[in-house]
Amino acid sequence: MGGRETTHAGQGRGGWRGILFRCAAVVLAVLPFVLLEGGLRFLGMGQPTDHPDPLSGFSRNLPLFERQGAVYRTSPAREPFFPPQEFPAEKPPHGFRIFCLGGSTVHGHPYQSDTAFPKWLEMELAGSDPGRVFQAVNCGGVSYASHRLAPIVKEVLSYQPDLIIVATGENEFLEDRTYQSLKSRSAVRARIEDAVYSLRILNLARNWMHGRQWEGTSPEFREDGKAQLPREVRTRLDERSGYASYHRDDAWHDRVTMQFEESIRAMVEMCREAGVPIILVKPGSNLRDCPPYKSEHRPGLAPGEENAWQAAFEAATAAEDNDLESALALYRKAEAVDGEYALLAYRIARVLDRLGRKNEALEYYLKARDQDICPLRINKRNEEILSRIAAETKTPLLDAASLLAGKSPDAIPGNNWYLDHVHPTIGGHQKIAQAIAGRMREHKRQEAYTRQLERLGPGYLADGRRRVGWLENWARRERLLDETLPKDSRGYLHAGFRRLDLGDDDGAWEAFAEALKRDGGAVERLGEHAKELVSQGRQAVAKRLWQWLGDSAPGKELPGK
Question: What pTM was computed for the model?
Answer without folding.
Answer: 0.72
